[in-house]
Amino acid sequence: MSFQQGLSGLNAAAASLNVIGNNVANVATVGFKRADAHFADLYAASLGLGSGSQIGIGVTVSAIQQQFTQGNLTTTNNPLDLALNGPGYFRMSHEGAITYTRNGQFHLDKEGYVINDKNLRLTGYPVAENGDISPTNPVEIQLSASQIPPRATSDPLAGDISAAINLDALDPIPLVTTFDPANTQSYNFSTALNVFDTLGVMHNLSTYYVRTATPGTWDIYATLDGVLSADAAPGGRSLVFDTTGVLTSVVPAPAAGDPVFSIPMPEWDLTDGATTPWSPGSIDYTDTTQFGNDSTVDRLIQGGYAAGSLVGVGVSRDGILQGRYSNSQSRNLGQVVLANFSDPNGLLNLGNNEWSETSTSGPPLLGAPGTGTRAVIQSATVEDSNVDLTKELVDMISAQRNYQANAQTIKTQDQVMQTLVNLR
């Protein structure tokens, strides 16, 4: 008579309790995936016996399978806490060794690399010089702390200043005929806009609008930091409207290739070391009108800015890290790359919320978040463990009963053996 069946049952029940205990222990581990113990029956190899004659010799643990189901998402105050909502793994690097994880608790080290608590570096796609994401071989994501250079309002990349203004058709001709920016009786309306020179120094550009005796015609004057342009003169720069209040032409006529209603601004001498004389460029007056309503500004924008320092980082659903700068600009700093596997249960569990690929899992299938079947990313969020504590406690009770029942089998076998020993 054999004790093997009962002993194998005890071992199997103990293994089940170990798996359940590990699940329960990691109920608060971010990105943890619970596991199940799978079992298989055992039969002795024999020749010539039909299946009706075989008696099993116990049970064995056939596999410990992790369950890669989605965990709940919990918000945090760290924008670099990243949760995966869907299939996929973060790709981590440590001195060239690549591992994978679902734990998205990241922060910056002193060199600007995005790392986890084990100092593994998050990898992703780099940024090209023009700011576009370059989907090449993934690299370790490093955020630069250097300032972004300024862009002058006059830079072609900044475009023209854009103004949409309504000038009141009922306004009278000013009482004072000689324009003076300090005398409000010499003009009808004015606007102010901050512009930036080639060093990123901010200046105040003010434009003044004066109704003339010619119907539908308004003269424009400009000052920079309160200094009137040297070429200021009646009729030097003008807007011309038709009888319906629609802008029909500007003076001077725009250069070839410029917008139809674009007027170049004058030049001023600067003393801050920037390019001088300097002009902020042209103002595009498209959508400017002369209706019988109060004069008002509907749009007045320019594309220049001062130098800026990195003040914050955000991560979009598609994994793009965007830096926010002190000059209100933003820049792409990289894109998180995600990996998928044909057989996730073939991954080798390394502990510390890490897996590595194996021949069973297949090679990593890399791509941007949200592409194919890959997860989307939620910033300032972490993925909780997918352990259901209630289920684990119920399974623990079942495993305990299994252990007790197998112990009882051994006890019964022992009693039978004792009966045989006592035969005389």
Characterise the protein shown here.
It is built from two helices and 29 strands. With 424 residues, it is mainly beta. It is rod-shaped, with a radius of gyration of 37 Å. It is 13% helix and 33% strand. The mean pLDDT is 92. It folds into three domains: 103 residues, no CATH class; 153 residues, no CATH class; 141 residues, Flagellar hook protein FlgE (Tick-borne Encephalitis virus Glycoprotein, domain 1). The two termini are 19 Å apart. The strands form eight sheets. Strands 5, 6, 9, 10, 21, 22, 23, 24 and 27 form a nine-stranded antiparallel beta sheet that branches. Strands 12, 13, 14, 15, 16 and 17 form a six-stranded antiparallel beta sheet that branches. A four-stranded mixed beta sheet has the order 18-19-11-20, with no helix packed on it.
